[in-house]
Amino acid sequence: MSRIETIPVDQPLVDTLVSGLTYPLRGAALATCLVLTVLHYADLIPFVGALISIALWAATWRYAADCLLHTSHGYFQPPDVVIQVNSAQGWWLSLIHVLGFVFCILYAVISPHTFPLFLVLVILVLPAIDMSMALDGHALTALNPVHWVNIITKFGAAYLIPVIINVILSALMFVSMRWSAQLPNLLAQPVACFFVTYLIILGFHLMGVMVYQRHEHFGLVPEAQELVAESGQNDDQQLLARVAAIEASDPDTAIALLVERMQGRHAPAEFHQAYQRLLRKQGHREALLEHGHIWIAALMADGEPRRALGVLQGCSEDDPDFMPDDPSTVHQLADLAGRLGMSRLGLRLCMGYLARWPRERDAVSCGLLAVRLLSGPLDRPAEAQVLLAKLMATYSEHPQHDDMHILQLKLQSSPGTT
């Protein structure tokens, strides 16, 4: 199980606000903001654009409701677009916010003089409605004024925090829409929609944090805390703290503790990093490189090639000739290094592959990748042509021989080659 990031129950308000600013820009929340922003271009379609806009804003509140509920269970990261909860909660929240917006417009037309008072009332009760829906999932309960008072009483003066946040976010929405209106229409639409979507998700997340920090008042058992307890994550943190405390005075015991943990259930990356740090500090080079092989293989099996490439870089600092012992892994990491602009590392992996496994199925692919790296980002076209000629001679019957010939013609016609 991957590490579960949780929100500290006693997190100060300032830290909550600062951390919350990046919440809509993390993981699935950012993807949702971007997708909804692009889809809002459909608002410009005559006649049906208004209906599409309503549906998209309903989807925005639906996801924001998921964020509130997800956060109220202690999760630091945003939820995926669909999580396993009572979907009616999100749809009811969407409907309540849409109706609230419609009522505000109607009230402003019918009674403009008392509209500010009505708007203040709406701003005051919306946080209670949102949190009630997240906790209970019952629309009739959430719309009950008695229940509003009950929630406000449980929060006390702290209830003013989400109210103030709602006011600030509403003002920011208004400012962003006014500012974006000065832009060309095709640019104003996505800018305004992105900012408003960002602020809606931010507001619901912050309310979710407040619910989470007072979960015991509402009989809520945070799911994230239960999962952390089941996974032994807290035990892992205590073990890492113990290792850090004794590593200077008793490094051998610290190393033994890490080894024992890594031999058990799936160990988080922190254990591998601490183990490598201690081995490097103690000068255990062979053990360090052996662990590098094991860790890279585990990361590749878990579908984390980027992290495996990082481990490979670290091991290469200890041994410039370090090479994973699986040819498939070397090929994948060489290709990834080339795509990430790590051309020298990619070339070293390709050449190492050719030297160690010249008859493996990916040998020609690695060779061609090396040629492209030499002729392209490394700007060594003469070496590229020499290597390509060797490949063509060695693998004259290979199915990719035509590809090699095409690449040879391309290199010969490139400026700066002879």
Description:
- By secondary structure, the chain is mostly helical.
- The protein is flat.
- 73% of the residues lie in helices and 0% in strands.
- The model has no long low-confidence stretch (mean pLDDT 83).
- Helix 5 packs across helix 8.
- It has 3 domains: 13-222, no CATH class; 232-318; 323-418, Tetratricopeptide repeat domain (Serine Threonine Protein Phosphatase 5, Tetratricopeptide repeat, Alpha Horseshoe), CATH 1.25.40.
- The protein is built from 20 helices and no strands.
- Keywords: Membrane, Transmembrane, Transmembrane helix.
- The chain crosses the membrane at residues 44-64, 91-110, 117-135, 155-175, 187-212.
TL;DR of this structure?
Helices cover 73% and strands 0% of the residues. The chain has 418 residues and is mainly α.
Helix and strand arrangement:
Elements: H1 13-21, H2 27-39, H3 49-72, H4 87-110, H5 115-136, H6 139-142, H7 145-155, H8 160-180, H9 185-213, H10 223-231, H11 233-246, H12 251-262, H13 269-282, H14 285-301, H15 305-318, H16 327-339, H17 343-356, H18 363-375, H19 381-394, H20 401-413
Helix pairs in contact: 1-9, 2-3, 2-9, 3-4, 3-5, 3-9, 4-5, 5-7, 5-8, 5-9, 8-9, 11-12, 12-13, 13-14, 14-15, 15-16, 16-17, 16-18, 17-18, 18-19, 19-20
Keywords: Membrane, Transmembrane, Transmembrane helix
Transmembrane segments: 44-64, 91-110, 117-135, 155-175, 187-212
Number of E-state strands: 0
Computed CA radius of gyration, to the nearest angstrom: 29 Å
What share of the residues does DSSP label as strand, in percent? under 5%
Low-confidence stretches: none
Supply the number of helical segments: 20
Please outline the major beta sheet. Answer: none
What integer is the average pLDDT? 83
User: What's the SSE pattern?
Assistant: HHHHHHHHHHHHHHHHHHHH
Shape: flat
Residues in helix, %: over 70%
Number of domains: 3
Which secondary-structure class do the elements indicate? mainly alpha
Task: For the record, give the distance between the C-alpha atoms at the N and C termini, rounded to a whole number.
Answer: 55 Å
